[in-house]
């Protein structure tokens, strides 16, 4: 098994052991987390759905992210990541939801929000949603997206351990 597969299986097993379904709300990863999860046979036992909300309109319409949040803080922010994860939990049958919003490049970075910045949201039923900020080295778009997907799953494993 690859390192990615081991991580995915660990997350899926954690969901199964805690009897919770999982949902994803992805922007910069564009569905990569959901793809990694559903690449594993039997994932349908614990994967409820994935939201790919690349545009701000999709974040508002599909997840209930506040337009005010997006206007005031931007899509790549702690606030948006939290609202995305919380919205995925609310709009699914999941007990855990992971969100990603970031700048994968090669363009779009600023001094305040450089290429490689990703905010991760984690929402677990019965707990206050949280967000974690990471800045990945700018080794190209695919590298950032892949590392963001892996990192989201690692945060998911950690959240399930704390369940």
UniProtKB/TrEMBL annotation:
Upper classification of the organism: Bacteria, Pseudomonadati, Pseudomonadota, Alphaproteobacteria, Hyphomicrobiales
Protein name: CinA family protein
CinA C-terminal domain: residues covered: 10-155
Cited InterPro entries: CinA-like_C, CinA_C
Pfam families: CinA
Domain of life: Bacteria
SUPFAM superfamilies per the UniProt record, alphabetical: CinA-like
Residue ranges that the Swiss-Prot or TrEMBL entry lists as coiled coil: none
